Amino acid sequence: MSNLRKFLSFASAISIVSQACYAQITTSIQPGNVLNIGYGFNASKPATGMQSFKTQWRFLTLGPSPSGTRFLATQFWLDPIDHSGGGDTLYIGINPPNQAINYAGQVHFSYFGTHGSTLYNQNCHAGADGGGGITCALDSVKALPGQTYRFEAKITKATATATTLEGNVEVFDASGNMIDSQQIGKFDVLRTNMELTYPGSWVEGTADPCSSLKRTMVEYSPFWRNGNIITADAVNLNSISGKCPFTYSVYTFPDLTQSVRIEYGN
Questions:
Q1: What HEC string does 56-68 produce?
Q2: Using CA atoms, how far apart are residues 152 and 130, in angstroms rounded to an integer?
Q3: What is the structure's pLDDT at 15?
Q4: What is the rounded (10 degree) CA torsion for 49, 32, 27, 264?
Q5: Range of the domain at 45
Q6: pLDDT at 255 over 90
Q7: What is the dihedral angle through the alpha carbons of 187, 190, 195, 196, rounded to the nearest 10 degrees?
Q8: Total domain count for the chain?
Q9: Span 84-112, mean pLDDT?
């Protein structure tokens, strides 16, 4: 049985934690986000040294116009291997639908920095959120309740002058069957001796009040690095924060992996 099928088949098995949380803290990602979510990195499994990673979530409840919510994404850094600092930010994720503007959803893989170079896909363009960088996007991947979205970011090539980065998405139906697999985009960054570091997930917020948030529930699976789901890092419950009230439930499966269902909105 695949790991995704285990997540889905046991998702109703054991509820360990279910409690209302009212965030008193923010994180270094975005203090105005609806949610910030970290993973269980520690000294033996630091949040550095990655050439690739996969992150995954499933929409359990998603309205056609989730007011006040924009991207659901995993943000991370392209950092020098020698940890000298000065890294660049990237994120990968999906923008849920907004019925009011006839927008069905879109997946993104974006780079924020001044070192962007060759673009390998027609759906990639220069610029990110109105600033410097690169944005790759696919309109063909819709955000739908019941479906699971697995995102992969990886370094595919490193030369004496550039690092090639690639973002991919796989979509699974409610039974765990893969129904779509696409490359979101690939591009070069003119930096060398780099690695992927410090990932964290978030649900982006807007200036809309918490009362305007539509009821949404998302199940976050463990994060796994370098393609190794066996040593996956579960969501760090102490890291979950946000500007609006939310609740969460934790599920532990026979292989001791966990997923976390987080619900917010009205």
A1: EEEEEECCCCCCC
A2: 24
A3: 30
A4: -90
A5: 3-264
A6: no
A7: -50
A8: 1
A9: 86
Specify the residue for token string 């991370």: 76
DSSP-based three-state secondary structure for 4: helix
The DSSP call for residue 230 is G
Long-range pairs of 235-240 with CB within 8 A, sequence gap ≥ 24: 235/37, 235/38, 235/39, 235/40, 235/259, 235/260, 236/38, 236/39, 236/40, 236/41, 237/17, 239/27, 239/36, 239/37, 239/38, 239/39, 239/200, 240/21, 240/23, 240/35, 240/36, 240/37, 240/38
pLDDT band at 28 (very low <50, low <70, confident <90, very high): very low
Lookup: tokens for 228 = 């190794």
DSSP structure class, residue 214:
P
The answer to whether residues 233 and 222 touch, using CB atoms and an 8 Å cutoff, is: yes
Residue 109 has a pLDDT of 96
Whether 237 and 248 have beta carbons less than 8 Å apart is answered as: yes
Which residue has 């990968």 as its token pair? 92
HEC states along 130-153? CEEEEEEEECCCCCCCCCEEEEEE
Instruction: Grade residue 40 by pLDDT with cuts at 50, 70 and 90.
Output: confident
Residue at 192: amino acid letter = T
pTM of the model: 0.85
For residue 214, what is the domain's CATH number? 2.60.120.1270
